[in-house]
Amino acid sequence: MRSKLILSVLVLAVACSVYAASSPKKDKAGEAVVTTQDNSEDLRLEGEKRFRANCGRCHAAPHKFPPRMMATIVRHMRVRATITDEDMRLVLLYMTQ
Fold first, then answer.
1. What confidence category does residue 36 fall into, taking pLDDT thresholds of 50, 70 and 90?
2. In this model, does residue 40 exceed pLDDT 50?
3. Rounded to 5 degrees, what are φ and ψ at 82?
4. Does residue 11 contact residue 76 with C-beta atoms inside 8 Å?
5. Which pLDDT does position 81 carry in this prediction?
6. Do 75 and 34 contact (CB within 8 A), yes or no?
7. Local structure of residue 29 (DSSP, 8 states)
């Protein structure tokens, strides 16, 4: 029980720092890129697929956490699971929507 609590706190701390370090995507001109509703849904589905492939081996999808905490969790687990930056970004998108 205690180890689960420690792991949860550690994962939450990592998610917070990932979210704080993330920034919006920009195009070549340096302007923020706005995604359409359809594109956003496609990205969320791709994030779900990558969650199942990379994270689902060990974890069931957790309850919703605030985006900042989830970002820390994803960044921490990225290191442990050796997933790519794009996988991390898509999983984070899936987990925060």
1. low
2. yes
3. 50, 55
4. yes
5. 85
6. no
7. T
CA–centroid distance for 34 within its chain = 19
Residue 29: the pLDDT is: 59
| Three-class SS state of 32 | strand
Q: What is the DSSP string of 21-57?
A: H----B-TTSPBP---HHHHHHHHHHHHHHHHHHTTT
Query: How far apart are alpha carbons 56 and 42 in whole angstroms?
Result: 19
Q: How high does pLDDT run on average in the chain? A: 74
Q: How far apart are CA 44 and CA 16, in angstroms?
A: 20
- In this structure, how many other beta carbons lie within 10 angstroms of the beta carbon of residue 2? 6
In 3-state terms, what secondary structure has residue 3? Answer: helix
pLDDT for 18 equals 47
